[in-house]
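Journal club prep — side note

Before the paper discussion, L.F. wants everyone to see what a predicted structure for a comparable chain looks like in token form. Sequence:
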Amino acid sequence: MTAVQPSFKTKYYHKRIGHLLRIERGRPLGTRKEPELVALDVVPGVEPSPKPPVRIYLGTEPAQHRAERIFVWSILQVRDPARRYEIYLMKDLEGFDRTKWKTGFTAYRYAIPDLAGKTGRAIYNDVDQIYLTDPAELFDLDMQGAGQMCITEKETAVMLLDCEKMAKLWHREDAERGERHKFFRHRVQAIDGMWRQLSGLWNSRDHEYEPGVSKLLHYTTLQMQPWRPFPRVLRYKENPNGQIWFEMERAADAAGFTLFTEERPSQRYRDMVEMYKTMHEQGSPDVGRPPEKTFSGKSLIEHVGPIANLIKLTGATTLLDYGSGKALYYEPYPGEAADSRFKSQKEWGDTKVTCYDPGYEPYAGPIEQSYDGVICTDVLEHITEEDIPWVLDKLFQHARHFVYAVAACYPAKKFLPDGQNAHCTIQPPEWWREQLDAAARRNPGKQWTLCAQLKGKFGKSDRVFRG
């Protein structure tokens, strides 16, 4: 079979009418200054290998969050425990013109030499892949003086790069201004020996997959990706090899696996918490809001009724308000001091509320193992995207009966000290529903409610999901 196959292509008839009419098209500007790093360290108790870390740059985008997690999980199943693996998530990077890109990450691959410091080796992978063999085997291949290895000169979804050599040919600024694939390909072709062919086993696309032989399975046909990331864009069909991916996802769910954890959050999350601490102390001068009114907890008011219904339904007597802010719209719980973290709400009867907020020192202390219900009403959109899964796991793990979560799907009026919008994760309601669904799979036995809030020309509206 040749490298470009009609069966791999996505035609107009694979797309939904709304997308073809350009009703729901366009990509937002990227906001990330650099890729987020997922580090897989040497397994404790194992003598470290003298070999260099296996560096992987992953082209991805928010809608591919399920594929992103299973890509990393697949590496965990086949990795060398003595080796360090560095997986860089190239997602929503700032400065790139993505107007004509097929995916949200199409040309990031050509910025890898610069992102890697113009030194050492790097693997590039599209997010719609799973490793069946240790990627260190690919990383360590003899490149015989080449700067780029892939299965054909046009098929760049899996590449091994010598970043020092490729930095002379591929420049981030060319990718940023929207140069096409052939621009970068021609620069490689102009130098004899710069490109070398990679075995097709490292990029087995859909029907090319051979059980027990293929080293990487690539779900390259967009309308046949098993996890169906773009239901509003594509008309999906079943993938004959879909069960391989779903089996991996079930295993990852059973293990409670997330890319980041509370103990090892992303760097963006750590930076964000520090900025929120600053805003709690200094306020939001950009909108004229003093410290005492910044993150006051006012958004709780409109959710008091729905939460009261859940309390009545489940008989809850204890609640955790995760990300409560300053909790100014509660009363002190009977017998507690006014500045105590224990609160009450008239409509909730004698239910005792414990306030928790990692950005507000008085409420940042340890919390109990479990509460009847956990509520989270002005938090999730303030959490960095890659940390949403472990934060949701925390909500579910602390809830005996129910989780009530709110996610704003629009920009905030406030800005962070570094200039970012305070709503750092702005995603559509369906994306948030998928996140709650995934957390529920990892933490079964709890009911949940998601209120996704939208803002349009005619004001705010809510979409409510339950599970």
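L.F.'s comment for the group: The chain is about 25% helix and 20% strand. Keep this in mind when we get to the figures.
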